[in-house]
Write a structure and sequence with these properties.
Elements: E1 8-9, H1 13-18, H2 22-25, E2 28-29, E3 38-40, H3 42-48, E4 52-56, H4 68-81, E5 86-92, H5 96-107, E6 111-117, H6 123-135, E7 139-142, H7 148-163, E8 168-169, H8 177-195, E9 204-209, H9 213-225, E10 230-235, H10 244-262, H11 265-268, E11 275-278, H12 291-304, H13 313-321, H14 323-326, E12 335-339, H15 364-373
Amino acid sequence: MTASGLTLRLSLPRLCERFPRLRLTLARAALGTFPTPVHPLPALSREAGIDLWVKRDDLTSPRHGGNKVRKLELLFGDLLARGAERFLVYGPVGSNYVLSALLHGRALGLCGHAALFARPLTAHGRENLALTRAVAATVADCSGVLTLPWAVARQRRIVARATGAPPYLMPFGGTSALSTIGYVEAGLELAAQSRAGLCPEFERVIVPLGTAGTAAGLAVGLGLAGARTSVLAVRVNDRILANGLTVRLLAHRVISLLARLAGDDRLARARPAPVEVEHGFFGRGYAIPSPEGEAAIARVAAREGLALDSTYTGKTAAAILAARSLRGPRAEGAWCWWFTLPRRGTDVPRTPAGLQPPGWPDDRSKTEPLAAATSPSPGWGRS
């Protein structure tokens, strides 16, 4: 049992079926509902000229879905196994990941703190930012990604002074070797759905490439499953963070960690599925809408009724709609679009009213020094 009285989910079923020792060495907080559905997209298939299916990871959680839930289950599992009660999550203003971590942490009875750096804000991002400020116990703002490490370090020291212990530090984008194991399980999940006849064995799985966890984890999971499926990762983040090398290095770190946790040398020899990175749909920058992406958002909404965002799924959809040019000379089978955009549950309001962060001292004398150090920077990120 956790400090909040919630039971940890002590295994990843498909991985643990193959490597039983993982039941003893991995802790996973129960946040999501799996497996997520997979189904065809007939109208978009006709337009893109491929047999296109979608894996609905927007439905990973009735509270706040999206691809981060699989990662957060492992991160919060580790946090709770260590007996921590507070955590610090950081990222750009309007981040889906930061908001998802805060909402799921709140549901677990944990106290979440945030550090945010300035980036362009879409309408969706402004909505996220307002909810983030409402649900976080404290928010530290900084002018850009280069000053973020200092803001995070200062926030940790301040919280430690106020509470007696430093908060558990979440990784950037929710991506670490540990959290990426959630997407190894996801790759095995998709292979199991294919074997059960729920979908074909896909030629390609297409995902957005941000901090590489989804792409790397799927590559490892599909490789372990023996699937004849490659991963096409559409870059949506700066090239220094999102490239083929970062995916390969993370995949090998995940394999090494799994081998150690499972106590099985066979894992160390595992070969990830092939990964190809597509750079042509990034546009002018992270979180900056692109003409191709905005056009794809409208076309997907009209054809399939799926709502997309400008930062991740819109640019991925633009690549899908250009599939004829990405296919190459050989004939290809079905494609699976791994749909990563969070879907908020009905218990999460669209506005901050009624959201309160748990677990932060009510005594103003304890919060005033922290509030002064984490007051919003003027002129940006307001909503």
